[in-house]
Write a structure and sequence with these properties.
By secondary structure, the protein is an alpha/beta fold. The chain has 5 helices and 5 strands; from the N terminus they run E-H-E-H-E-H-E-H-E-H.
């Protein structure tokens, strides 16, 4: 689709790279940003802002897909719309409300984006 993609994870760089390679998806990402490489981790926005800078995109034109409360808070604080994809831990309702949308799985995201792009 020609979209620029980044992973912005609190995990160590070696773990991120290992998991992306193991799943065979490393080539889909233009930037891999670890929380260990930024001044402040999530819920501070640094990790997302640096990933946007490396991609050369404005935060308001980016989209974050997150499963954690700290990730949704960090995206909100960075001014980046986010999609919360619930995992094993339920997040606070006030934080849920900070997400642009909630999807039950990543599989729902393409249809959501297609519907919203069609409206523009």
């Amino acid at each position: 689709e020609g979209l620029l993609c980044a992973v912005a994870s609190s995990s160590p760089p070696s773990m991120i790279e290992y998991l992306l390679e193991r799943k065979g998806i490393a080539s889909f990402f233009d930037v891999v940003q670890s929380g260990e490489e930024v001044p402040h981790g999530k819920p501070d926005p640094d990790i997302f802002l640096i990933a946007c800078e490396k991609l050369g995109v404005l935060p308001e034109t980016a989209l974050v897909m997150e499963d954690s409360e700290n990730g949704i808070l960090a995206a909100y604080r960075a001014g980046i719309p986010s999609i919360w994809i619930p995992d094993m831990v339920e997040i606070d309702k006030e934080v849920q409300a900070m997400a642009w949308h909630i999807c039950q799985s990543l599989a729902e995201v393409p249809d959501l984006l297609e519907k919203n792009t069609a409206r523009d």
